[in-house]
Design a protein that fits this description.
CATH topology of the largest domain in chain C: Rossmann fold
Chains: A mainly alpha, B mainly alpha, C alpha/beta, D alpha/beta
Number of strands of chain C: 10
Distance between the termini of chain C: 29 Å
Number of helices of chain D: 14
Radius of gyration of chain D: 22 Å
Low-confidence stretches of chain C: 1-7
Shape of chain D: elongated
CATH architecture of the largest domain in chain C: 3-Layer(aba) Sandwich
Order of helices and strands of chain C: EEEHEEHEHHHHEHEHEEHH
Structural class of chain D: alpha/beta
CATH superfamily of the largest domain in chain D: Response regulator
Number of domains of chain C: 2
Radius of gyration of chain C: 18 Å
CATH class of the largest domain in chain D: Alpha Beta
Mean pLDDT of chain C: 86
Oligomer: heterotetramer
Strand content of chain D: 15-25%
Distance between the termini of chain D: 9 Å
Order of helices and strands of chain D: HHEHEHEHEEHEHEHEHEHHEHHHEEEEE
Strand order of the largest sheet of chain C: 6-7-8-3-9-10
Chain lengths: ~375, ~300, ~250, ~425
């Protein structure tokens, strides 16, 4: 119990339980599998948004290229699934059986070397974690060691997203081009397209999301979490306190990249295909917006923000297909102008004090300034206030 | 690849290619100048820059239709009115946006990115609702079409010359406004030290609004000019945004001269590579080079070493 | 004052140090030495290069030429955090603290342990940390405000907090850029007392404009003018130097 | 390669037969136990009542593709209205549910699933890009829906759940190249396209065919989607002096390309070089401007200017419904065929059941098609004529050639891969 206490305050524990209840109980009970699958797809974006909370909200590093990592994770998974779907028997009609169909259409007669290892599920799962990390590390090391930050970092990551999209589309023989990698069927022989599989994948996705929330919470609760905020506010001070600021930034950027990649892989599994339209600039910015709507400082907020925006998108576009962009655009402006702390800010100002009063026996109080990270309600600093 | 051609042919082609590079250069400068003012001087990340350009294009479209229908005798010169109107329309919208949105966000540059992205969605949908989802064709006076043949192979596109002259005029205009006029002095003063500028009696709010409107207005002119070479549709503005930001950042955000230098470098690199490689790879390589150089030299091409 | 003796006796020796910004020599062929346990104050008119000297020592600005040796170790090639780890602490002109964190957290982050990424992840707030934080907080008069968010402190308290954040690192050389700027008279007195207390066992370099304050604390004073040393010695000697009078009054 | 086609035919027919038997069995049970009227024609729980039947329209109304897809939506709505005015399908009025794919492929998949699973529509008319079709394809196959896809496309696909009402690549390309080679004496070609699957695949087929005719390809080049600067490639074209520029540029790039081509002094009316495109319909010309593309040739199956009774009637009603200043391109006409082909298949099958409609589809003829006569092939594509049009300054094409026979659709062309 002490472990739980040091990791989650009461408020946060309740937050986590509510998210878990929503994912595991409320949604499956209230939705048919079609809606649930949709909901599962939204949740994969929440991985990216949580990463952005750490990277941008806490650390002040705005990446407009998270789609790159989402895409890398998704493509790794898709490559494995595509190879499994492209058995010589299933592709007997091709001029070269046994390779993915789009390769055959592009006169590729043998599997390219970098596809080979994706025959192995172990390699694939490792690759989902390692490749985006390495890529993020290279970008991060190049930029943060040279103190590229703020707006410059945002624009360069955006350019990287653009480059990767053009590359994927241009190299269609190796990547499936603009159509992406489609028609994915089975995972180790298990058909991922059945309703039953969709339920299973949904729960796996939900479980992973909870795990990622806990892991992120661990990072935020550690000294590193406070250092991130410190770097955001006074980078020089951190440096002159003997820390290598670039390493801290590289770490959090890589961490966010891994989370995005996990989201991407789960996306591929649940949606059944991967295409360059999740890599580019537009999806990358949208993911930032999910995070902003959630309130950029709260990992739970990020989950709700993602769900809210996507739900709004789907609903608006069903009801007012010609008008929904007005609503969406207006939402972004409102979030920036009127609710800069997003959903979590609203929660903190209106609901949190109420919840606090309900759950505590009048001990702790909430800080007035929502921009600060949650205080350690049970930390030693509070336990023995100085006299 | 050149074995089959005579020297004259090659010479002509390189001249043409050089000219193509210059046109691209002008296009880039025109695209980027407005943003260089807004982003470079004010620090506002205006993701709706492309939509301001398209506003200029739609204004030109309306002008062409109205003039063609009601005063066809003036059709030959309507383009100049159209550009002036495009400047006014985009500038006015810019002032409105500054007043309602941007001025609340000067301390939060990254948030301007989100807000203006929202704005760009709204503008796109507005164009779609007003002008339809399809691209519109802007008819141009005949003298703007076609080319001037110099030799058998060398032909100079008239609209290319037009864009180059226009770019030159606007660049000089911007130089005078920013570096030779009182408004420019005030703008630079506000950029460097807002509090101090306010203290010495500069109306910083007004200066901000004018600067933002100026940047948007130039975007409007650019959009108007681009009806000669590109498409006019609700989402056409999106095509420009990445290139434009890269140019400004590559030039060193705070330096207008840098923007021009980087337009030149990128346009020459791109048109040379396009000639020797295929189109897509040229684009990828150009972007990669720019990103690579930016990683090595994050401050961009032109930046002053300053004491911190 | 035979400065060219054997520089290994000094805690910090700066020799032929120059830096130029686009041709402008902000610091020009400077030689400066700081003894152990010395409070060394740098004064000079605006633009003399005082802050630049501190920036050069702590690695914030890279030198164009010359050397900076700290305990015989060359600092010019090191990066900022490495210089800090060598034992050089730096306070900025404007209080540079983490406004979103509490006083306690501000001090805790400065505690010299767990400075690597994984060190920070596994850092534990144990008894050693809390004791030390409290100790320092008491020293900088903030022991009653440990749980206050730093943004809510007064200007003088923020200055003290930053000094506390340096003290908790236990540096051998402490560099303070205008530590009493914007402080009330009583806060100034308290700060002078604090400085005298913390010099025990370490050297302090101070850049300051307030002559009264300089007189109170300085062991030795260096006057900089246009990137060069104009005069050096005790406060009394410097004040009597006609060159100094000329520079201060002539402008 | 022969093997490939046989296998596909085999697979398709075997699948059809299997599902056919299954359907027949189900029909038997259904008619035994549920003799109600609606159930007779609907044994699988589609949204069919005694007097209505629901169908889906799935295109992008927002996003970058809205530009192209608007015409298809209008055509499909017109066809549905006309069918309803004639009494509907099997006596039932068609009600459509329109969904927005928002130019986003997963959204297409999501909405397709909604249409099939939640709304249980009897058919879907929709998709435009290949990417969106690829995204919805598994959904249609899994939930056994029927998609009528209107766009000319690269081929290499043949699904039992899709009827392709546009031309596949060989139909469009081979006739066009034969024509320029024969009528215009073209010897050399410069292939140019936007960088994605349709232009690349089409140019591949074009190249094979050009080489087969003993002619030469002097350049082949792709630019990213949305690219707006074509001066470099225009210079290269000037250097290589091809007889034909074979252009498959799409979207906003199209506008930039033709404007810059014209500005660079290439007057297409002089046909030196001649420009042949398969990607510019009358719809696109509106954005490009008629004066900028005057003199170019396009190879496709339909032009608004086609002179026949069906077309005169179609253009008239289209303008009545959607306004006088509207233009109609190849894809719009193909989209118009969708509801009619579906109606014919349903009536032939006497049922809305997907499996029966599928079985009934091959061989369906449409003599009322604006383009003339079309027939559904076993491979679910249409037999159709290919036509060459010459672009006029008013934005219309003038028909200069049409194949005498219907071109056989061949999505997996032998010797072209």
């Amino acid at each position: 119990m002490t472990h739980v206490k040091s990791l989650l305050s009461r408020q946060e524990l309740i937050g986590l339980l509510v998210v878990a209840a929503l994912i595991f109980v409320v949604m499956p009970l209230s939705m048919d599998i079609f809606r649930l699958n949709l909901f599962g797809k939204y949740l994969t974006y929440a991985f990216v948004a949580i990463g952005l909370v750490l990277c941008w909200g806490k650390g002040g590093i705005l990446s407009l290229g998270q789609g790159v990592f989402f895409g890398l994770g998704g493509y790794c998974m898709a490559m494995y699934l595509k190879l499994e779907a492209s058995t010589p028997e299933a592709t007997a009609i091709q001029s070269t059986p046994g390779i993915p169909d789009f390769m055959d259409w592009n006169q590729i007669t043998s599997l390219p070397w970098f596809w080979e290892p994706f025959n192995s599920l172990t390699f694939t799962l490792l690759a989902i974690l390692v490749i985006p990390t390495l890529f993020a590390f290279v970008i991060g090391a190049a930029m943060f060691k040279r103190r590229v930050g703020g707006v410059y970092f945002a624009i360069i990551t955006q350019a990287i997203a653009a480059i990767l999209t053009i590359l994927i589309i241009g190299q269609q023989g190796y990547t499936g081009g603009v159509n992406g990698i489609t028609d994915l069927r089975t995972l180790k022989g298990w058909d991922i397209r059945t309703d039953e599989a969709k339920y299973v994948l949904y729960y796996v996705n939900g479980g992973l999301l909870i795990a990622v929330l806990l892991l992120s919470q661990f990072v935020l609760k550690s000294k590193l979490g406070r250092l991130l905020v410190a770097v955001r506010d006074k980078e020089d001070r951190v440096r002159f306190s003997g820390y290598d600021v670039s390493n801290i930034k590289i770490f959090v950027f890589c961490f966010a990249a891994v989370l995005s990649a996990i989201g991407g892989a789960m996306f591929t599994l649940q949606v059944g295909f991967m295409s360059p339209s999740f890599v580019g600039i537009v999806p990358s910015i949208e993911m930032v917006i999910f995070c902003a709507v959630g309130g950029r400082l709260s990992i739970f907020g990020a989950v709700y923000g993602t769900l809210l925006v996507n739900w709004a998108k789907t609903t608006f576009s069903e009801i007012f297909p010609e008008l929904w962009l007005f609503g969406l655009g207006g939402l972004f402006i409102a979030v920036v102008l009127v609710f800069p702390n997003g959903l979590s800010g609203l929660y903190r100002s209106y609901l949190a004090p109420l919840v606090d009063r309900l759950i505590s026996r009048g001990g702790s109080s909430y800080p007035p300034e929502p921009a600060s990270p949650p205080p350690d309600l049970d930390g030693e600093a509070n336990a023995k206030p100085a006299e | 690849m050149f074995a089959d051609y005579s020297w004259t042919e090659l010479g002509s082609i390189f001249a043409m290619q050089g000219f193509a590079g210059l046109i691209l250069f002008s296009v880039f400068v025109l695209m980027a100048l407005g943003l260089a003012i807004i982003f470079g001087q004010m620090g506002v990340i205006n993701m709706a820059h492309g939509e301001f350009m398209i506003l200029g294009a739609y204004v030109t479209y309306l002008c062409s239709n109205i003039v063609e229908t009601y005063i066809p005798s003036l059709f030959g010169i309507y383009f100049f009115f159209a550009m002036a109107l495009a400047f006014v329309a985009a500038g006015a919208l810019g002032a409105l946006v500054e007043w309602s949105l941007i001025r609340h966000l000067y301390k939060r540059p990254l948030d301007t990115l989100l807000a203006t992205w929202g704005l760009s969605l709204i503008l796109q949908q507005a164009y779609r609702s007003i002008f339809g989802a399809r691209e519109v064709g802007v008819s141009l006076p005949n003298w703007l079409l076609g080319s001037v043949p110099l030799t058998d192979i060398i032909e100079i596109p008239i609209n290319g010359i037009f864009v180059m002259v226009l770019t030159l005029v606007i660049a000089i205009g911007v130089y005078f406004i920013l570096f030779r006029s009182r408004m420019g002095m005030q703008t630079r003063a506000v950029v460097q030290n807002r509090v101090m500028a306010g203290a010495v009696g500069i109306n910083t709010e007004k200066v901000d609004r004018h600067t933002f409107a100026l940047g948007c207005g130039i975007a409007g002119i650019a959009g108007s000019a681009f009806t000669m070479i590109g498409s006019t549709g609700p989402t056409a503005g999106q095509l420009y945004i990445v290139d434009t930001f890269l140019i400004v950042v590559f030039g060193g955000a705070a330096s207008l001269l840098g923007t021009i230098a980087s337009s030149f470098a990128i346009s020459q690199a791109q048109s040379t590579m396009e000639f020797f490689l295929s189109g897509s790879m040229a684009k990828v390589l150009t972007l990669l080079t720019v990103v690579g150089i930016l990683m090595l030299r994050p401050e961009g091409l032109f930046s002053l070493k300053i004491r911190r | 004052m035979n400065t060219i003796s054997n520089n290994t006796d000094f805690l910090l020796s700066i020799e032929s140090l120059s830096v130029s910004f686009d041709g402008f020599k902000a610091v020009n062929d400077l030689n400066l030495y700081v003894d152990e346990n010395e409070i060394h104050v740098i004064i000079g008119p605006n633009g003399a290069g005082k802050t630049t000297v501190l920036d050069l020592i702590c690695g914030r600005t890279k030198a164009t030429a010359g050397s900076i040796k700290f305990r015989k170790k060359e600092l010019t090639q090191l990066r900022e955090h490495e210089i800090v780890r060598e034992g050089v602490g730096r306070k900025f002109q404007n209080p540079s603290i983490y406004e979103d964190l509490t006083v306690f957290e501000n001090l805790e982050l400065s505690f010299p342990r767990g400075r690597s990424v994984f060190g920070a992840l596994t850092f534990k707030r144990d008894a050693e940390v809390t004791t030390r934080v409290r100790e320092i907080a008491e020293m900088v008069f903030l022991d009653a405000l440990l749980n206050m968010q730093a943004a809510l402190l007064s200007h003088g308290q923020k200055q003290w907090l930053e000094i506390g954040m340096l003290l908790i690192q236990d540096p051998e050389l402490l560099m303070l850029d205008e530590p009493v700027a914007g402080m009330s008279v009583s806060e100034r007195k308290q700060t002078a007392k604090l400085l005298n207390e913390i010099t025990k066992g370490r050297s302090v370099m101070v850049v300051e404009h307030d002559m009264k304050f300089v007189e109170d604390i300085a062991h030795r004073v260096t006057v900089l003018h246009q990137g060069k040393i104009l005069s050096e010695g005790s406060m009394a000697k410097v004040q009597a130097d006609p060159k100094v009078i000329d520079v201060y009054l002539g402008h | 390669m022969k093997r490939l086609k046989d296998l596909i035919d085999h697979r398709l027919s075997r699948r059809s037969v299997l599902s056919g038997t299954a359907a027949a069995a189900m029909l038997a049970t259904a008619s035994t136990f549920a003799p109600a009227f609606a159930d007779d024609v609907n044994t699988t729980g589609l949204a069919v009542t005694d007097d209505t039947v629901k169908v889906g329209i799935l295109h992008s109304v927002t996003g970058t593709m809205a530009i192209s897809e608007t015409g298809s939506v209008q055509a499909e709505k017109l066809a549905i209205e006309q069918i309803n005015a004639m009494g509907g399908v099997l006596g039932r009025k068609i009600e459509y549910i329109q969904e927005d794919g928002a130019s986003d492929w997963p959204t297409f998949a999501e909405k397709a699933k909604k249409l099939l699973v939640n709304d249980k529509v009897a058919a879907v008319f929709g998709c435009w890009t290949s990417a969106s079709r690829k995204a919805v394809l598994p959904v249609f196959e899994q939930y056994n829906g029927m998609l009528y896809y209107p766009t000319f496309y690269e081929g290499l696909e043949q699904s039992p759940n899709v009827i392709y009402t546009g031309q596949e690549a060989t139909q469009q390309i081979i006739a066009g190249i034969d024509w320029v080679a024969k009528e215009k004496g073209a010897k050399s070609f410069y292939l140019l396209g936007s960088d994605y699957i349709w232009p690349r695949t089409s140019n591949k087929i074009a190249r094979k065919h050009i080489e087969k005719l003993g002619l030469k390809v002097v350049g082949e080049e792709y630019y990213p989607l949305g690219h707006t600067q074509f001066n470099s490639v225009i210079n290269k074209i000037k250097l290589k002096k091809p007889d034909v520029i074979y252009a498959i540029v799409v979207g906003g790039s199209n506008v930039a390309f033709y404007k810059q081509l014209k500005a660079a002094g290439i007057d297409m009316t002089k046909e030196k070089p001649l420009l042949l495109t398969i990607s510019v319909t009358e719809d696109e010309i509106r954005g490009i401007g008629g004066e900028n593309i005057e003199g170019a040739y396009a190879a496709m199956k339909y032009f608004q200017s086609l002179d026949n009774e069906n077309n005169a009637e179609f253009v008239k009603s289209f303008k009545e419904m959607w306004g006088d200043d509207i233009v109609i391109g190849d894809v719009t006409q193909a989209a118009y065929l969708g509801p009619w082909l579906w109606k014919a298949a349903v009536e032939k099958a006497g049922s809305f059941d997907i499996d029966k409609v599928r079985l009934a589809s091959p061989g369906i003829e449409l003599t009322t098609a604006p383009e003339g006569y079309v027939r559904v092939h076993e491979n679910h594509h249409l037999w159709s004529k290919t036509r060459i049009g010459l672009a006029k300054p008013d934005g219309q094409y003038e028909l200069v050639y049409e194949t005498t026979d219907l071109m056989e659709p061949d999505p997996f062309p032998e010797g072209y891969q």
